[in-house]
Amino acid sequence: MLQVTAHPLEPLALEFETLGSIEGTDKWDWWQARTAFVPGDDPLWITTMSETGKGVSHDFHDVYQSLSRDGGRTWSKPMLIKSLQRVKEADGFEISPGDLWPTWHAKSGMVLTTGKTFNFAKGTEEKRLREKVSYAVADPRSKTWGEMKFLAMPEKDHSGRKITACNAGNHQRVDLPNGEILLPVRYVADVQKHNYTSTVARCRFDGETLTYLEHGTELNIPRDRGLYEPSLTEFEGRYFLTLRADHSAYVTSSKDGLKFDPVREWTFDDGLSLGSYNTQQHWLTCGGGLFLIYTRKGAHNDHMFRHRAPLFIAQVNPETLQVMRKTERVLIAENQATLGNSGVCRINDHESWVTCGEGLMRLGKRKGEHNKVFHVKITAKAGE
């Protein structure tokens, strides 16, 4: 059992405000919805979403955006991003960018979204080994997006294994003051096994092109699909990485964002398992505290697919890398839809947003209803 610190942290108080939502359509759900905040005299919030079929998983098509100029209270009608449409290539494969995470890049003044490609043979059969790190750049002044591009990764990893199917789908990144980017990625080192290794790549971004410079510790567990969908944050001069696994969830930390300590499974501060598995977790920093966004089992939610609702938030002790159980709160309540694919948008030191689209409604009592994309504003209480 992990040892807690001699001086446990005092819980930080947060306030939640539900902002405006974006509704799906009769034909499509909005999945993988995430928001970027562009500061300035005329601040702008941009939520991107994947147009997703209601019948089967991973039926991803075009990417849309919706804009807000009033702090998320109202949103524009979703508009197609033409450069991020699903396209058919000469070899018959249909390619769709997806699992995107848009974030304002302060050094360049651009919005950079990173993610992956979905690759479908004959339009329906997904081929994961063809995945790539995809990205696109938006100029917030014109609200237009450039073409989908791909990050060139090295041929082999540190141990000489071939890097295959590298992608950054659903990965939370850190932008450094000098404009460089710490981008978590995952890849397959053995094409005979669907087992991911995760690492953090240090990249250069000049406002147009994302360029690989180096990558750090290669993190893996040999069971199931390995470690994947890593998310990174910086807090008080240290870097924290959370990783998805099929049976559990893992965490580690680093002094420089590249060289990480051995991973450990997430637990509460009483030593018991967090219970999050086979889905994403993401970070939020607010009011001088470090927080985790996650779903877990053990919340009277056995009827939910992979226990992916409700969506929780709780404070993390950065010294022990444990979730402080008494701080856990429901951020978005369970309502017969999964909430595992969320995103965090940092506004400033005292405010962040969580964006989350409802998923897999066909499995619940709300089959046939339109799904919704929720935006929740999180602020540190005055004096915190």
Keywords:
single chain; 384 residues; mainly beta; 7-stranded antiparallel beta sheet; 5-stranded antiparallel beta sheet; 30 strands; disordered N terminus
Q: Ends: how far apart? A: 31 Å
Mean pLDDT over the residues: 95
Structural class: mainly beta
Q: What portion of the residues fall into strands of 2 or more residues?
A: over 45%
Number of helices: 0
Order of helices and strands: EEEEEEEEEEEEEEEEEEEEEEEEEEEEEE
Residues in helix, %: under 10%
Annotation, overall tally of beta strands: 30
Largest sheet, in brief, is: 7 strands, antiparallel
Shape: globular
> How big is the Rg?
19 Å
For this structure, the quaternary state is single chain
Describe the structure.
It is a single chain. This protein has 384 residues and is mostly beta strands. The protein contains no helices and 30 strands. The strands form six sheets. Strands 7, 8, 9, 10, 11, 12 and 13 form a seven-stranded antiparallel sheet that branches. Strands 1, 2, 28, 29 and 30 form a five-stranded antiparallel sheet that branches. Strands 14, 15, 16, 17 and 18 form a five-stranded antiparallel sheet that branches. The radius of gyration is 19 Å and the shape is globular.
Task: Record the SSE blueprint.
Layout: E1 14-18, E2 22-23, E3 28-38, E4 44-53, E5 60-68, E6 79-80, E7 87-88, E8 94-105, E9 110-121, E10 125-126, E11 133-139, E12 144-145, E13 149-150, E14 164-167, E15 174-175, E16 181-188, E17 196-205, E18 210-215, E19 228-235, E20 238-244, E21 249-254, E22 264-265, E23 282-286, E24 289-294, E25 311-317, E26 322-323, E27 329-332, E28 342-348, E29 351-357, E30 372-380
Antiparallel strand pairs: 1-30, 2-30, 3-4, 4-5, 5-6, 7-8, 8-9, 9-10, 9-11, 11-12, 11-13, 14-16, 15-16, 16-17, 17-18, 19-20, 20-21, 21-22, 23-24, 24-25, 25-26, 25-27, 28-29, 29-30
